[in-house]
Every structure is written in structure tokens, then in C-alpha cells.
Write a structure and sequence with these properties.
Residues 1-24 form the signal peptide. Belongs to the UPF0382 family. Its main location: membrane. The chain has one domain. The protein is an all-alpha fold. Helices cover 78% and strands 0% of the residues. Helix 2 (34-63) packs antiparallel against helix 3 (69-93). It is elongated.
Length: 134
């Protein structure tokens, strides 16, 4: 996926986060047990923070394309889907078994932050990585 696709994905994630937050505040208010409402809100919060982080990496990438940035974007995107997505599904369905997926999403989110640290420390421009220089 080229940068334009990543920008669109981040924009859609941001919009979906606002919709999910509004849905939780209005349609779900008083409809879910406190534990499930809190799970839904946690999903919204983590999705928004990681959507903002996606935008930050995309901005960095626009100024300085660096080896590893796509890995960070991919890890965070998969993490959002598994972490926040499983919390949304858990809250809306009440099926406790869905909570088993959430930690895998959390691990992907953490891995994205670790990959970001490595990417920032190494700072290899893409041109070097493509020519075989490491």
C-alpha cells in the first residue's frame, strides 16, 4: 500500500473512532453493563491514540522516508483491528471468548512502538535499504 492508501486508512480510522465514541456516548449509554461499556470505551481510546500515532509516522515519512516505517504502520493497524475490534465485539455481543483476541492486538500495538524505536534509532533512508546497505 502506498502512502496515499495509508493516509486514507488513518483518516477512516479517525472517523470510525469518532463514530464509535458517539455511539458509545449516546446509543449505548445505560444499555451495557459497566464492565462492557468500559471495554468499549477502552477500544475507542486506544484506536484514537494509535490513529494519531499513524498520522505522526506518516508525517515523518513525508519528510524523511525511513526503512521500517511501513512495518510500524502495519503493526499498529493490525493491533487496532485486533485490540479495539475485539473490545467492540466483546462489548456489543457479550461473548467473553472474544476477549482472548485482545491481548494479541495489544502485543501488536507494543511491537509497533518497539519497531518505531528501532526505526528512529537506525534512521536508514529507504534508498540505502533498497540498495542492500544495512
Amino acid at each position: 500500500m502506498h502512502d496515499r492508501g495509508w493516509w486514507c486508512l488513518a483518516a477512516l480510522s479517525g472517523g470510525m473512532t469518532v463514530m464509535a465514541g458517539a455511539f458509545a456516548a449516546h446509543a449505548l449509554q445505560g444499555q451495557l453493563p459497566e464492565r462492557l461499556a468500559a471495554a468499549f470505551e477502552t477500544g475507542v481510546r486506544y484506536q484514537m491514540w494509535h490513529t494519531l500515532a499513524l498520522l505522526g509516522v506518516l508525517g515523518w515519512r513525508a519528510a524523511r522516508p525511513t526503512r521500517g516505517q511501513y512495518l510500524v504502520l502495519g503493526l499498529w493497524t493490525a493491533g487496532i483491528l485486533l485490540f479495539s475490534g475485539s473490545l467492540y465485539a466483546l462489548a456489543l455481543s457479550g461473548l467473553g471468548g472474544l476477549g482472548m483476541v485482545t491481548p494479541f492486538g495489544g502485543v501488536l500495538l507494543i511491537a509497533g512502538w518497539l519497531a518505531l524505536a528501532v526505526c528512529a534509532l537506525r534512521g536508514l533512508p529507504e534508498a540505502q535499504s533498497e540498495s542492500g546497505m544495512a
